[in-house]
Amino acid sequence: MPRRNAVSWTTAIAGLTQGGQPREALALFKRLRRAGLPPNEFTLVSALNASSFVGGAGVGRARQLFALAVRLGFDSNVFLTNAFLAAMVRHGQLADAVRLFDNANAWDIVSWNTLLTAFAHRSSLRLCTLWRRMAIEGVSADGFSFSTVLSGLSGSANVAATGLQVHAQLVKSGFVDDVCVGNYMQEMYMKNKQLESGIRAFTEMRHRDVVSWTELAAGLLHCGEPAESLRVVSDMILDGIRPNNYTIVAAANACANLANLNQGRKIHGYVIKLGGDSNVGVNNALIDMYAKCRSVTGAHKVFQSMQRQSVVSWTAMIMAFAQNGQAREAVKVFDDMLLEGMAPNHAAYNSVLYACSQGGFVDEGWIYFEAMADKFGGEPGEDHFACMVDLLTKAGRIEEAEELISRMPFRPGVVA
Questions:
Q1: What phi and psi, each to the nearest 5 degrees, are found at residue 391?
Q2: Which among 176, 181, 330, 409 could bridge 321 via Cys, Cβ 3.0 to 4.6 Å?
Q3: How many CB atoms are closer than 10 A to CB 174?
Q4: Which helix (H) or strand (E) holds 176?
């Protein structure tokens, strides 16, 4: 291109950023500056967006870019304010983000939503405070605002007061028919074990999708109602909604809680019919379901059918054998995992130590216990010590158990 103007530079910088090449985008912005061309506000927005996705030096670059924007007289441009705000939030500079927001010459609903998103992931108390401030200042929330605050309140102690307030505002504002918002509201109630409110939120939704049904099924399970969870999945299928992988996982977990092997087999058959038996998460849930229904054969068949096993898959299979009186097979699965080059995590180690405890395999237990730190760089946790103490005690090796307790980095009464 023999002649380049601000539009062509901006297009190229934005394209690199959107294409996942933020460093190249910032390098191109440097070339623009060296060429003596003044950037316009759109060029600066694109460069600020790029700085959001560059670690380390990205914070400094974002500050430099916004300072340049101010010098060029763009400090009242809301798009620039939002781009800088997003950069500060993505880099975890919340104090700077709040200061910018409070002193901004211009902001819009995107500005509020950016700050809501930051607090939703970090501080439910500050999220509630900002939400109340929005109401006081007469800012009209949009669907994204409601979804963000509802998501942030999931599992929060502040849901009792603020959650009801958000629900009331939601109805008043007309976003009650937004499926995404409705799903987040249902999730908020269910994760806080407000079962009746969660069910009411679902029944009041005029439009429901697979996420709505899945949230209800998972929520019922979370609230200790596995039979009702299965009923919801059945109703969902009858209603013509095709379950997704998350629905299947919820159903399999419900069967596991009920130890309902017949229903579990039906769920497995449905998975095969849908062609979802290649999903790792679904298969892990099926392994766990079969194990808790005392069908180790079923669990092993699922495990062997998997094209790719994760460390969770291996751990689930180890526990399946260990919890069903087949400790030697559990230890063999752990050894096979190591031979496959899969690095065990803390849960996998806990499973194999539990298997050793169940089988009385003292020597193997010591080997695995010491290998945690020596070979895999992981320090044993409370559960690992507890398994070893249990193993040694059952084997009558009381002095070894006492010696191990004496060098635990925890208070002995906690695990032994």
A1: -60, -50
A2: 330
A3: 8
A4: none
